[in-house]
Structures are given as structure tokens and as C-alpha cells.
Amino acid sequence: MAAYVVVDIEVTDAVAFEEYRKGVPATIAKYGGRYLVRGGKAETMEGGWDPQRLVILEFPSTEAVKRWYFSDEYKPLLAQRLRASKGSLVLVEGV
Length: 95
Hints:
Blueprint: E1 3-11, H1 14-30, E2 34-38, E3 53-59, H2 62-69, H3 75-84, E4 85-93
Antiparallel strand pairs: 1-3, 1-4, 2-3
């Protein structure tokens, strides 16, 4: 079953975040993931959510997401992202 990673990021250090942005796609692809949304314009239609930079990834399974997120390849990039931004990340199973 497909699994999705939904991230809302507020970039606090654009230079450091750019390094993360360049390095992360290869790690996502290695674990079978792909971008569905990557920072495009978002418009709130209901509620009070005002995403800053929205990213949605699709992976083949929740296990693939976890292998990517906790991988040795992603670990230094995750640390970079956490230094350069703040936000929220959720993992959700598809249907």
C-alpha cells in the first residue's frame, strides 16, 4: 500500500536549506519515493492552515518511508533541514 509524507516547512536559513534541497532527491528515489508536490503555491480553502512550503512525497509503503527517513544517507540531510527550517512532517498510509 502506498504511503505519503506530508511536510510543511518554514525555511529559516535559505542558504543552508538550498544544500538540503539539492541533496535530498537522490535519497528519496533510492527508497522508491517520488515528489508529488514540492513547494508550489498553496491556497487555503478551509480552516486556518497556512502552509509555508508544502511537500508531498509518495513511497511504495510505510516501511519504505521509514527506511528512507532513518537511513544513513538521509541522516545528515535531516540534520541540515532541522537547522535550516522548522515545520511538521507526517506519514500517512494511502488507500
